[in-house]
Structures are given as structure tokens and as C-alpha cells.
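Comment thread on ticket #2218

A.B. wrote:
> Attaching the input chain for the structure job we discussed in standup.
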Amino acid sequence: MARRTPGSSNEFRRVCKVFFSRKLALVGFIIIVSVVFTAVFAPWLAPYDPYKMDLVKKLLPPSRDHLLGTDTLGRDTLSRIIYGSRTSLMVGVVAVSIAAIIGQPLGLAAAFFGGATHAVVMRLMDALMSVPMILSALVIGTLLGGGLRNVIVALGIGMIAVHARLMCGQALTVMQNDYVTAGRVIGANNLRIMFLHVLPNCFPPLLIQITMEMGVCILAEAGLSFLGLGIAPPGAAWGSMISDGKAYLMTAPLLSIAPGIAVMLVVFGFNMMGDGLRDALDPRLRGTL
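C.D. wrote:
> Ran it. Output below, let me know if you need it in another format.
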């Protein structure tokens, strides 16, 4: 069984100490952990069924029974926000995973093999990046229709180019190091060099990018749902809740404000975590506390 070396253990402790010493990073970490906890235990935390309609109780103001009031169909707003965290996290995790799984191998192959492979992959990524992610997601979402699966596919495709170009740039830098040359000299095959020497040393910037894109993806999903191209009714999604409540801003402002605050906090949390990871994984800080 492989054992953790003292050097890797010290490096892990250093990364944790630097990360948690950043107050905003710690706040972001607490927010994200809280949202994940809420999403996992939503059936036990939600006071009501988020999909059960009761027109007699529609547009109720906040009260002891309904802390954030009810919507136009009598559904409990707090319960729908709690269940909406599941939707947002699922979209963020799966869409970013799709982009990373497709984009990062493409960028690694482009950097490693160079020549025609690099030219073709990078030109394709340039074409993809020439269209803003939210616009490409709108086009793909319009073609495929709404729904959770199509939103995830649209956002995942829109983020492939960022991962490919970042991986390509990092891999080109890492491949200049002596240990890669030494691996070639001793006869290591291309796959071994790519996945055991190049990829692990490219991972820290990619981890930061993944963390930051989680917030971007959740915000984009809320925007698509707001425009009616996201999660189909009666699914609980923060963006569609904001859209449904905008007609009642004067009489029942919490219908839009409460899910809007939820989106803001989650995006803020992921951005602060990304900043903290950037500081903690900065190579210039290695070996220091």
C-alpha cells in the first residue's frame, strides 16, 4: 500500500493553512459546505413539499408557518429554494465535469503532439471561444429545448474551449522541465509521460479554474432559467423562481429577492474559494507557511 511521504504531508498542511488563513476563502468555503449540506439533506430540511400546490394559500406573506411566504401557486418559497440548491449544484458539477473531461485531454494532446494536432485543436477552440458562453448556451438550449439535461449539455459545450486552452498552455510550460526530458531519455512512452508527469503538474491551475467555473455555470443556469430555457416547470430552480416572481416585486418581493440572494451567495462562495486556492497553490509560496 502506498504511503504518504513526509513531503506531501507537509505540502498538504501548508496548502490548508494558507487557504484557511484567507478570511474570504474561509467564508466561501463555509457557504459552499452549507449549500452542499442543504442539497444533500433537502428532503429533511424542507418544511413542505416544494411541488405541492395550494391555491388557497397563494402569495402569502412571510409568517411562522411559511418563513419566506408562498408563490403564485401556493408552494412554500423556502422549500423551493432548498430544493433549488440541488438543481444548481447538479448543473454546476456535471456541466463543468463535461467541459473538463472533453477539453483537458484535447488541450493535453494539442500541447504534447504539436504540429497539425495543435493547429486543428486550437483553431476549433478559437472558433468556440469566439462566441460567448452564455450566447452559445442560449443557441444550444434553443435548439435542444429546455430541461435539466439540455441545460447541462449546453453549458458544458460552452466551457470546453477554456479548459482546452488552459491545459494546452500549462502543458507546454511543464514539458520544458528536465524531468519530462529525462522520462523521454529512459524510454518512457507517451502515455506515461502525459499522464504521470505532465498532467499532475498542470492540475493546480485547472483546479482553480474548475472552482471558479462552478459559480459561472450556476449563474448561467439561473440566467437560462430566467429566460425560460432552463429547468422546466414544476422543477425548482432559482432562475425560474426569480423570473416567476418579477411580476410581484411590489407586492411579494421575496419571491424574486430570496432566490436571487441564494444565487449571489453561491457564486460569491465559489469565487472566494477559487481565490483562496489560487493563493494556496501558488508555486511561489511552496515551502513557506
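A.B. wrote:
> Thanks. Noting for the ticket: Residues 16-43+75-285 form a domain with the MetI-like fold fold (CATH 1.10.3720.10).
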